[in-house]
Amino acid sequence: RKRILSGIQPTGTPTLGNYMGAVRNWALLQKDYDCLYMVADLHSLTVREEPAALRRRTRELASLLLAAGIDPVNSVLFVQSHVPAHTQLSWILACNTQFGELSRMTQFKDKSAKHPDNVNGGLFTYPVLMAADILIYNADLVPVGQDQTQHLEIARDIAQRFNGVYGNTFTLPEGYVPAAGAKIMSLAEPTKKMSKSDPNVNSFVLMTDDRDTIVRKFKRAVTDSDGVVRFDAANKPGVSNLMTIYSAFTGKTMEEIEAEFAGKGYGDFKMAVAETTADALAPVQAEYGRILADKAYVDGVLKDGAARASRIADRMVAKVYRKVGLLQLD
Ligand code: AQP
Predict the structure, then answer these.
(1) Atom in ligand 1 nearest the alpha carbon of residue 107
(2) Contact 15 CB / ligand 1 (< 6 Å)
(3) Does the 3-182+295-324 domain belong in CATH 1.10.1240.10?
(4) Residue whose CA is at the smallest distance from ligand 1 atom 34
């Protein structure tokens, strides 16, 4: 079976975007692949975090992944910092990555513009750590949102170059943007992607939002003034985004949705999107409450996950250390 690695940062409670673009698919992929899923806490340090909040969110995120159907027996669920090999490999890869390559990353440019007061080295070398996350497990496939494809490209470049210099070491990972992994846009500014760290709480629906909150946020969602439910991402980004969400949850095509709401106002449409979303999230939320209350269970899962991930990752680091010429003692 092919191996999958994917991660999510504990930078906030996951949004509907994270759910539809990543988490929901992670659960489905377990049927056909060997999966490693990671809470990327080291990556989240590129943005200044309140230590207690980061600790709390890391456990919450792991619980939410379990609630969303990640099976900790057949898949490996772990926290990135619990597997030190990621950081070890990251240094070696950094020494095999060019400054120019990293300077071209659009996420670096975006994030440094967003946080001009904290343009740190970690933000710049983020793609190297991400390459280490992937290459350390010889992952075949990496399910990512469209926003991550440039990072995947650089991971492949780093792997290819390393293999060329030191001999075949890493599997070249393929990006995998699942068919249903639509990009969900902000409800407040529908030309921007929905982000969990957006300061505007009306821009996102959280996976943990209750029904009333979901309804309120969708009611406020920015649309347009022509009053017709029609898919046109360029000219009607708000309505099109709501249609994408509705389509992903109901399986209906855009044409079917247009027909369903022909002659009806945005009010009815928004209500339908809200109800469908709340219905879809309800079972995950119920399970989340139960799992989060069982700290011993969650911590046990994460300990087991770290041990299983480390067994693979430590072997790769030893191999890479040997290949680049670091002295190993008997
Ligand atoms: N709006 C989105 N639509 C579809 N997929 C999305 N993803 C994120 N936002 C959307 C996918 O979720 C996975 C985990 O993301 P992440 O936590 O590693 O970081 P991110 O992509 O930076 O997500 P956010 O929510 O925007 O976080 P912040 O606000 O901290 O930057 C990834 O596979 C991503 O593609």
Answers:
(1) 22
(2) yes
(3) no
(4) 145
Binding-site residues, please? 9-11, 17-18, 133, 145-147, 184, 193-197
The CATH fold of domain 209-289: Tyrosyl-Transfer RNA Synthetase (1.10.240)
Residue 10 C-alpha to ligand 1 middle, in angstroms? 10
Active site residue 252: no
97-145 pLDDT, tens per residue? 999 999 999 999 988 998 899 999 999 999 999 999 999 999 999 988 7
Alpha carbons within 13 A on the beta-carbon side of 121? 2
- Read off the pTM: 0.93
The verdict on whether 111 is a catalytic residue reads yes
Task: Give residue 25's identity as a one-letter amino acid code.
Answer: N
Measured between alpha carbons, how far is 319 from 324 in angstroms, rounded to an integer?
9
Answer whether 252's CB lies under 8 Å from 246's CB: yes
Residue from 193, 217, 236, 270 carrying the catalytic annotation: 193
**Nearest residue CA, atom 5 of ligand 1?**
21
Contact predicate 73/98, CB 8 Å: no
Q: Give the residue extent of every domain in the chain.
A: 3-182+295-324, 209-289
